[in-house]
Design a protein that fits this description.
heterodimer, A: about 110 residues, mainly beta, four-stranded antiparallel β-sheet, 11 strands, about 0% helix, B: about 110 residues, six-stranded mixed β-sheet, 12 strands, globular
Chain lengths: ~110, ~110
């Protein structure tokens, strides 16, 4: 079955560490996205990519980095510069504007 | 740029009662509109979408939404809710031309009790 796979489901990070969240899709979608979800704030866009080797900052890109070396993969690195990284992170992809398919999310906790 | 307002953060309702979750949007261009549902600790699932054509769109599990351009609204309705409808519901908008990002509202938590 086609879909988006996010791993791990739960991730714990120590202060000052970088961590990388994985997102893989087999839907042959061109566009991929990373969102951050906090209680009461909905989903906020971190980064997005329309094609391989190209990506753009979203609304809250500070403290995050991404790469898009393959069409299927769009990993997100949460760097030590991100002041409040504890959140639920969602990856999505789409083939046409707007209609997104979401992964099941990664819950990141700073310990 | 687009924006979405979901005024109700939480809507409590009894089982088998009707429900309406409100969504208003702002945009300077024509739009696509979406409702997504999220169950605890899961990703978002597309519930229904308006891209063009009939302004009334329906989902397979009894939800419907009507695109009202003059009121810039896309309210979600269900005539009779079930306990299993308890979830968070997100309204989203995008422009309808070229590559467009989804912009989400802050979500409405629907709480269905017996």
């Amino acid at each position: 079955d086609g879909g988006i796979t996010q791993s791990p489901k739960y991730l714990f990070r120590k202060e000052g560490q970088n961590v990388t969240l994985s997102c893989e899709q087999n839907l042959n979608h061109d566009a991929m996205y990373w969102y951050r979800q906090d209680p009461g704030q909905g989903l906020r866009l971190i980064y997005y990519s329309q094609i391989v080797n190209d990506f753009q900052k979203g609304d809250i890109a500070e403290g995050y980095s991404v790469s898009r070396e393959k069409k299927e993969s769009f990993p997100l690195t949460v760097t030590s510069a991100q002041k409040n990284p504890t959140a639920f992170y969602l990856c999505a992809s789409s083939s046409t504007s707007g209609v997104g398919t979401f992964g099941s999310g990664t819950r990141l906790t700073v310990v | 740029a687009q924006s979405v307002t979901q005024l109700d953060s939480q809507v409590p309702v009894f089982e088998e009662a009707p429900v309406e979750l409100r969504c208003n949007y702002s945009s300077s261009v024509s739009v696509y509109l979406f409702w997504y549902v999220q169950y605890p600790n899961q990703g978002l699932q597309l519930l229904l979408k308006y891209l063009s054509g009939s302004t009334l769109v329906e989902s397979i599990n009894g939800f419907e939404a009507e695109f009202n351009k003059s009121q810039t609204s896309f309210h979600l309705r269900k005539p009779s809710v079930h306990i299993s409808d308890t979830a968070e519901y997100f309204c989203a908008v995008s422009g309808d031309t070229g590559f467009q990002k989804l912009v989400f509202g802050t979500g409405t938590r629907l709480l269905v009790s017996p």
